[in-house]
Amino acid sequence: MTCLIGRLLVCLAFTGAALADETRDGSSSQSSGAQSSGTPSSGTIISGSLGATSDFVYRGFSLTRGKPAAQASLDVEFPLGFYVGGFAATADPNPGPSPQMELDFWAGRYWRLGDYLSADLRLSQYLYPDDPRRVNYNRSEVTATMGYRNRVFVAAIYSPNTQALSSAPGYRNDGAWALEISARHPFNDRYSLAAGVGHYGLDGVYNESFSYWNITLVGSFRPIELQLAWLGVDTDATGIFIEDAVGDRVAFTALWRFSTSP
Helix (H, G, I), strand (E, B), or coil: what is residue 51? Predict the structure, then answer.
């Protein structure tokens, strides 16, 4: 297993609203409206996005096997830091019979802990409607995130019911976990650099685990956001997933964002 600490020294990231894992917008552990706004709101705020990515990447592996995907997200932030949200994207993870879409739903709460620290606790559900694969790929996750100055984030994720991912049916059903560290640095009001690294513990499903990383240049031309990401995964992932789903890759994402926040 590739050493995670070594990767931490050279990779720091997050893709737009995502952590180190993905070109999915809106559904990672630090992407809630509460988290991105920096403080819990005093009223209800609705935000979201519509767009497309050249490659739908989730924790280092592609759910479209290198092909483009359309995607949309919606977040509703309530007073006192509570929020709910959803995400939808086209998908094609399997070279044989494959689901055409991924749907994610989540609910959570955000806390501001003093001037510099924040915390976020989230329950997420991943669904693949009309999935023709024989194994159940739907799963639930609990994510706890700590943030520092809304710039650096550490997230711990646990899934009690992950049975399979992408095109690979699992061998066991003993749960899965992930640890992610990400950071972002704005150069000015328009451009920022984001980066992150994660480790996916799938020993309870595949008897394997692997590390993944991401470095992303983000350009904000409101309401349009453009992202250019380099994403990678270590060679341990090749023992789990098919060849065209893993490996270093570049992805371009274009999003139209909206928000009722003033």
Answer: strand
Residue with tokens 């050249």: 54
Segment (H or E) for 259: strand 249-259
Of the candidates 214, 180, 199, 231, the residue with the CA atom closest to the CA atom of residue 62: 231
Nearest to 17 by CA among 249, 230, 216, 248: 216
| Model pLDDT for residues 150-172, shown as the tens digit of each residue | 999 999 999 999 999 988 888 88
Partner residues linked to 110 by β-bridges: 120
Length of the chain, please? 262
CA dist 188 → 156, 172, 191, 220 (Å): 30, 48, 6, 10
Q: In this predicted model, what pLDDT tens digit does every residue of 196-223 receive, in sequence order?
A: 999 999 999 999 999 999 999 999 999 9
DSSP β-bridge partners for residue 119: 111, 146
d(CA 262, CA 35): 16
Spatial separation of the C-alpha atoms in residues 81 and 184, rounded to whole Å:
22
CA dist., res. 75 & res. 188, Å (int) = 25
Per-residue pLDDT tens for 217-233? 999 999 999 999 999 99
Place of tokens 């349009």: 224
Question: Would you state the pLDDT for residue 112?
Answer: 95
Domains of the chain are 4-259 (2.40.160.40)
Provide CB contacts within 8 A for 172, sequence distance 6+: 204, 205, 207
**Could you tell me which of 238, 192, 186 has the C-alpha nearest to residue 217?**
192
